[in-house]
Amino acid sequence: KIQNQSNQSPSLFEDKYTEQNLLGEGGYGSVFAGYRKADHLPVAIKHIPKDDDLRTELNGKELPVEVIIMLKLTGESVRAPVSLLDWYDLDQELILVLERPVPSEDLYSYLEVNGGSLEEEKVKVSC
């Protein structure tokens, strides 16, 4: 179950997860493959520099916007393509730990291979 509060220690992250190869980079951070040490569950680990970390208030706490969105998508009545498993609000960066289905690929790569667009039925299946 996802925690509603962040962990604030890099050593807690390092004790719990192993980070592997870079999956991708974008304007809001880098995403790495990894796994949870306890059960070898494949995860995606997203690093967001603090200067790119947008925040807003929720229930009297200032939280990263991306965390708020992911927490809302974790509810029973809502289904997200991937779920937020854990998060770490560190001094220099925010680390999000997300599910990583295997095999998987990013949408851009999928579109390149499949002619640049998706049929409605394929969109419904992927969501």
From TrEMBL:
SUPFAM superfamilies reported for this sequence: Protein kinase-like (PK-like)
Keyword Ribonucleoprotein: no
Protein name as catalogued: non-specific serine/threonine protein kinase
GO MF annotation terms: ATP binding; protein serine/threonine kinase activity
EC number in record: 2.7.11.1
Family according to the record: Belongs to the protein kinase superfamily. CAMK Ser/Thr protein kinase family. PIM subfamily.
Residues bound to ATP: 46
Catalytic reactions of this protein: L-seryl-[protein] + ATP = O-phospho-L-seryl-[protein] + ADP + H(+); L-threonyl-[protein] + ATP = O-phospho-L-threonyl-[protein] + ADP + H(+)
Domain Protein kinase positions: 17-127
Entry keywords, A to Z: ATP-binding, Kinase, Nucleotide-binding, Serine/threonine-protein kinase, Transferase
GO aspect biological process, one term: regulation of mitotic cell cycle
Pfam families: Pkinase
Domain of life (superkingdom): Eukaryota
Gene3D superfamilies the record matches: Phosphorylase Kinase, domain 1 (3.30.200.20)
Enzyme class per UniProt: transferase
A cellular component annotation (GO) from this entry: cytoplasm
InterPro entries documented for this protein: Kinase-like_dom_sf (IPR011009), PIM_Ser/Thr_kinase (IPR051138), Prot_kinase_dom (IPR000719), Protein_kinase_ATP_BS (IPR017441)
